[in-house]
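On to my pick:
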Amino acid sequence: MRIDLHCHSTASDGTDTPAELVRNAGAAGLDVVALTDHDTTRGYAEAMAALPEGLTLVTGAELSCRVDGISMHMLAYLFDPAEPALLAERELVRDDRVPRAQGMVAKLNALGVPVTWEQVERIAAGGSVGRPHVASALVELDVVPTVGDAFTEQWLADGGRAYTPKHETDPFEAIRLVKGAGGVTVFAHPAAAKRGRTVPESAIAEMAAAGLDGIEVDHMDHDPDARARLRGLAKELGLLVTGSSDYHGSRKSVALGAYTTDPEVYGEITRRSTGAFPVPGAGGV
């Protein structure tokens, strides 16, 4: 089985619609794909309707969190999307994304970059707006060559000249809320140092004690040494180890299925979840 548990659509900052994502996942030879848009479940219905035969969909989300001043992302799988407490927190984070992006536009303007809010809105195309959309605007204006080059201290990285904070959930609260909604939690790309400061291993240990289920180890932003270190940490803490592409369509160079999760780990994730179940494809429209 080929299992990719971290993918984005136009419901947040990917460039494939949810329908295109699942069709492309099937064409890429995946058996299981997770839809994990940022702080939203809006793409679920479209993805399910288009799900090709032979492909199973895992519903999820990537939650924006912050601990000790460090931004981090928490992957949540197979939770009940209508559970009130988690839904309210997702809406709080999502609603703060627009003023945050507008703040980044204002800071870029002050730096002499002629980006406009209308441009960012067009790029977001109704999705959950985020830094990648602002980064794409900088690429359009030839300020930076790639989206990744916008995530530096010069521009949009944490603490960068145009960085603007937003509401982010305490990860311990995120774990509690996701568990309360019947879901499973995995710390996304915990050693992605090029994105900014990373959470110390002591904090990961505290999260494990609070109910964290796993950490994402095989990821494009982790070098071999980081992966080996994270595997050792996961074994020490009793955490599941996942691998995923973090696919964003054309916004990133990584392909669907570039990194995958072991079928036994996937099985354990499904066994632990009670809020939702994987959706088998029956031949989408």
